[in-house]
Amino acid sequence: MKNWNTLFIRQGFAVREISTNEFGLDIETKENTDFLMECLLNAGVHFTQEHFILTIHSKPVSEKEWLAAADFPDRGHGEGLWFHAEKEEPKIRELDLYISGLIRQLNRMALFTMGSCDGNGRRHASIRFRNGVEMDKVEKLFSIISHKKIRIRGQNLILPHTRAELLNLVEKAINIDARMLEMPTEEIAKLLFLDQLEELLNIDGESGFEKNVREHVMEILTPLVDHMTVDSKGNILAQKKYRGGNGPVILLNAHLDTVLPIEPDRAILKENNIWSSSKGILGADDRAGVAVLLQTAKQLAQSTFSGTVKFILTVEEEIGLVGARSVDQHFLWDVDAALVLDRRGSGDIVVSCGGYEEFCDKDYGLFIEETAKKAGLENWKCTNGGSSDTRIWASMGIQSVNLSVGYINEHTSKEMLDIESCYNTVKLVNAVFEGARELRRLLYRISRSNLNFAN
């Protein structure tokens, strides 16, 4: 169930959240405010309005109910009547139901539109921009917020998204402003990554109580994968084929739980590239790994990788790898290699537990080292480490490594996260996927070598 603020944003209303169920309307036009009141009445919501303050006294309705309340026959047919002044705000009632929120965000970023259609469930959505709008900025924006390939023809944008996906794009666009579009795409992606990382760090979820963080991760991951499920233990299992899936099958893994609860009144302290907690653990073990996994899932759609990725986000890792031990082996039968995102420090490629329990053939670890060098990432080296979910995947014969994600002093109130090191892990993982052809050949050689040794 989405909260009122999210429902308003996805439909395009410019409200200012003051507190739970209390909103400022001073940044919205009178026409759009009147339409918002009309929608609330249609939804049977009890509310009061005093000057520019809206207070809602009812629980949020479902989005299906909210869309029904905002809809009416021939909605969207009047679009185009309001494009008279350069900065005049769009009239929401004149926009199609599923694209009004996105149009509002585009105009907020000075990407002024002249017409739009949500596709009506029968064809692709489309948006026409005013003459003078730089379409390279439009392309940059959608390369960041969308995992689907868009088409641009002159001042026209074609979106191959379902109407439900158009609503999801609104929430991604809300974090971007016009100034950011002047920045290189990589810098924008990094800023959004850090926003997502901070959000993850603020969701409680110690071992055995991962429900909230699991739901948050699933909401982000759902549009990025072909299939997703939660197994009987509570692990998230997901899969995505890229470009036909004719390539290696790679497992990406991180764990959802933290060793202790997140203190409810703590603050995240930021000093240059180092984040820490004002009280209790930071939770970067392993929310940093979860953030890297999600960022990789977003960027894979824009990569050249051909193959299959399986995503496993485990529960109860901190109390004995409980979640990983319960994963159905049928989900893992075709996995060629695993990248686990749950190691302290920076630059570690963990290839064994304590030097006595090997996770992979030495050449797999060396491949990761070489990939880091080619990507311009210094000081990544193979090393021995401690226990992690990596042990479980390796025990099943999967070539596995555990990669540093930037945290130190985990499990203590002195835990810190180097966000630069964390983002470098994103770069490394993406570089591994870009080198998938070479990796596939290496894995074949390792497999043949092991087969010959066994014989």
From TrEMBL:
Q: List the Gene Ontology MF annotations in alphabetical order.
A: hydrolase activity; metal ion binding
The protein's matches in Pfam families, at most eight in alphabetical order, are given as:
Peptidase_M42 (PF05343)
Q: Which residues form a coiled coil?
A: none
This one is known as M20/M25/M40 family metallo-hydrolase
Q: Is Protein biosynthesis a UniProt keyword of this protein?
A: no
SUPFAM superfamilies referenced in this protein's UniProt entry, alphabetically:
Zn-dependent exopeptidases
InterPro entries in UniProt? ArgE/DapE_CS, Peptidase_M42, Peptidase_M42_aminopept
